[in-house]
Amino acid sequence: MLSSLRGFKDVLSDEALKWQWVETVTHEVFSAFGFSPIQVPLLEDVRLFHASVGATSDIVEKQMYAFDDLDGKRIGLRPEATASVMRAYIEHNLHTGPVPTKLYYSGPMFRHERPQAGRLRQFHQMGAEVIGVLKPHHDVELLSLLAYLFERLTIRGIVLQINSIGCPVCRPLYRNELLAFLQGYLSKLCENCRRRSRENPLRVLDCKEASCRGIASASPSPLDHLCAECAHHFRAVQEGLSRLNIPFLIQPRLVRGLDYYTKTVFEATSEHLGAQSAVAAGGRYDGLAEALGGAPTPALGFAIGMERLMALLDPTQVPERPLQLFLIPLGSAASKMLSPILYALRKRGMRCEMGDEEASLKSQMKRGDRLSAQYVLIVGNAEIEAGVAQIRNMQNKVQQGCALTDLTNNLLAVLNA
Ligand SMILES: [Zn+2]
Ligand SMILES: [Zn+2]
Asked: 171 alpha carbon to ligand 1 midpoint, in Å?
């Protein structure tokens, strides 16, 4: 018997309906904030991810699904989408359009995670990118979008953590100080961190190992090394958030381990998610466009982990859309009469279903029950002869007569009452 691959999951209808609702709400919110959708491919030339995510990063080295296609070209399943969006921006000269370019996307990402971590290898992200602007009020706008999204989805207990990791002017000073600090703890760092601390000490602060986290919590913060411009930018972001009454917390050791990240970095976390507490993460990546061979282009963005978001969703907040009417035909004459009515009601947006004319009244009633139909209409030969059928409200069991002439409109009147 075949089953789905490890780390790949079916999302069955009950759960998929919640996903759909989240997507509907998010489309509305992104649109209100002036973002346009973009769809980028799942497969890219692996060099895109080498240049963006980093050729020596864990994601590219250990987790990316990379393989040669039938033409011998090295391709990779995207582990994230920011690189693809930036590639599309450069490839299609989107800088010639209105500034900033505000884009959002949603879709599956792929990482060959260790199975024991219980993480999915196909997971989903929804993200936003603001491309072509430097000023701090764009950081505030993006963060306010994120905050409002959680509000609209009634997800409570989210903490917005922000930090600044400086720029190519001030970060080298911080990097050197961090490097010197870590030298004193080399033997206590995990193997990965010992290896990578030399090339990229900031990534030690990202490490999830308990020993490394302990050391990280005592390490110097980039906040103490910001140049005047970065300090001004970070202050303006905080002031902007306060003006919008958006609560935030400064997390002085929050970093992104990639060189093209600059200034503002942030995470939205929830205590309900355990150790992997971030449900969304993002920041400024003013250096990414250049890293991909484009002109220098400041930009910022975030990605939301959909599976984590869904885990935080309060299911009672998701509106249900029950079956409004179940039509029960007893015999073929009734079925012939009701099938155009069913079609007409569906075209009017009513959620309706019809039973099998050959099945007994009892078994059809049972099916209507299983579908949680709000109303049931029973039509047999006797009803056709009398020109009237009974429509039953399944909640309070109250029945009322419903004339068969102009039945569609009669039913619409009952359903819309
Ligand atoms: Zn700076
Ligand atoms: Zn470590």
From this structure: 7
* Percent of the chain surpassing pLDDT 70: 98
State the virtual CA torsion across 129, 133, 134, 140 in degrees, nearest 10: -50
If we measure between CA atoms, which residue out of 407, 372, 410 comes closest to residue 393?
372
Q: Using the mean position of ligand 2's atoms as its centre, give its distance from the Cα of residue 208 in Å.
A: 6
Ligand nearest to the CA of 171: 1
Q: State the distance from the centre of ligand 2 to the C-alpha of 226, rounded, in angstroms.
A: 25
CB atoms within 10 A of CB 71: 6
Q: Which CATH number fits domain 325-415: 3.40.50.880, 3.40.50.800, 3.50.50.60, 1.10.10.10?
A: 3.40.50.800
Query: Which CATH code fits 13-170+226-317?
Result: 3.30.930.10
pLDDT value of residue 271: 85
Backbone angles phi, psi at 265, to 5 degrees: -125, 150
- The CA distance from 137 to 380, in Å, is 67
What digits encode the pLDDT tens for the residues 267-292? 999 988 876 689 999 999 999 999 99
> 24-28, 165-169, 208-212, 227-231: which has the minimum mean pLDDT?
208-212
Return the minimum-mean-pLDDT range out of 244-248, 258-262, 277-281, 393-397. Answer: 258-262
Name the closest ligand to CA 263: 1
Rounded CA-CA distance 109/117 in Å is 17
Closest CA to 83 of 129, 121, 117, 33: 129
Q: Which ligand is nearest to the CA of 234?
A: 1
Question: Ligand 2 is a single-atom ion; what residues have CB below 5 A from it?
Answer: 190, 193, 207, 209, 212
The stretch 164-178 carries a mean pLDDT of 94
| CA 249–ligand 1 middle distance (angstroms) | 21
Cα 108 to ligand 2 centre (Å): 28
Ligand located closest to 165 CA: 1
What are the domain boundaries of the chain? 13-170+226-317, 325-415
- Read off the pLDDT of residues 146-167 as tens digits, 9 standing for 90 and up: 999 999 999 989 999 999 999 9
Mean pLDDT for the stretch of residues 381-397? 95
CB 302 within 8 A of CB 146: yes
Instruction: Let me know if the fold of 13-170+226-317 is the same as that of 325-415.
Output: no
Cα 163–chain centre separation: 23
